[in-house]
Design brief:
The protein contains 5 helices and 18 strands. The chain has 307 residues and is α+β, with helices and mostly antiparallel strands. Strand 3 and strand 4 form a beta hairpin.
């Protein structure tokens, strides 16, 4: 499938009030107008697209959906044909849902471990409409989508890897330096980053572990780092550089309990000629100062699921 990357994320949230301050003041998100039929939800801009993140009222904080961008209508229709050929159930989004997401058309489907996905094309945008609420050079989204995402699943199956590589057409990047069974995957049209999504095996648990946001300057990593420390927001990892990626980053916890990795590319990422198997997670820094799995990763019983 000709997929660019992750274009938007949707969450159910019991902490929307905290996000109204945290999103603009800490992360430099711009608050976007909420659709008329979704006025109680909170939408954020990270660039000139209509929105990139949405927080919908809910009893707990959890990942609600992942929005993938197809290159265009022909690629979107080809993807639907691929799903049908594989016997995968897809739901066509109606006009109201497409308008709410700000896209021309979309479909909805679930992966084999139960996470909700959407595929669309043609998201609305307005040039020059992103105005950071504090001094900030913006987010690096033009060619890669908004972020990468790591989720934890109670099951990590061969069916999941088949779905991601053979159906979605993602490239396998590797297992990283983490313990247990994990997999990192990159969309077909993404040649700018090592992965768009990763799945980690957490028996009896499900949720979102972290998102990674790319900023345009190293100063914006430093400024965000200072704000996090000044506000005494708990961190997961201190400032550091991963072994596999030439990026400078740190991780702190959002009001929803998942971590946000703020990232600056020290040098452009380029695909390796062989699969990497690093001895350790980071070449320097990234001291672990909080739990690897925050409260956004919950036991199945908390989610009303049977293990």
């Amino acid at each position: 499938m000709d997929i660019v990357g992750i274009s938007y994320l949707g969450f159910e949230s019991a902490t929307i009030a905290q996000w109204r301050d945290y999103g603009p003041d800490v992360l430099a998100f711009s608050t976007a107008a909420s659709p008329e039929d979704d006025a109680e939800s909170l939408y954020f801009k990270l660039d000139d697209r209509r929105h990139r993140l949405a927080f919908h009222p809910g009893p707990i904080d959890r990942l609600a959906y992942i929005g993938w961008e197809a290159r265009g209508r022909m690629e979107f229709l080809a993807a639907i044909a691929k799903f049908e050929a594989e016997g995968i159930a897809v739901e066509r989004g109606d006009a109201a849902l497409a308008a709410r997401r700000g896209v021309r058309e979309l479909i909805r489907f679930k992966d084999p471990v139960g996470f909700q996905h959407e595929l669309f094309y043609g998201q609305k945008y307005t040039p020059g409409s992103f105005l950071p609420p504090r001094p900030h050079a913006g987010f690096n989204t033009a060619e890669r989508g908004i972020c990468h995402l790591v989720v934890i699943t109670p099951e990590y199956t061969d069916e999941l890897e088949h779905f991601l590589t053979q159906v979605m057409g993602f490239s396998w990047y590797g297992s990283g330096a983490g313990k247990g069974r994990t997999g990192f995957f990159r969309a077909k049209l993404n040649d700018k980053t090592s992965h768009d999504i990763a799945y980690g095996h957490g028996p009896g648990m499900r949720g979102i572990q972290h998102i990674g946001l790319y900023v345009n300057t190293v100063n914006d990593v430093g400024k965000t780092y200072d704000i996090v420390k000044e506000r005494q927001i708990p961190m997961m990892f201190t400032l550091g550089q991963h072994t596999q990626d030439p990026h400078l980053s740190f991780y702190h916890y959002s009001p929803s309990g998942f971590a946000v990795e703020t990232i600056y590319e020290v040098e452009p990422w380029h695909p390796e000629m062989f699969e990497l198997n690093p001895e350790k997670l980071s070449s320097w820094g990234h001291q672990l100062v909080g739990p690897v799995l925050g409260p956004s990763v919950k036991k199945l019983a908390e989610l009303g699921e049977v293990g």
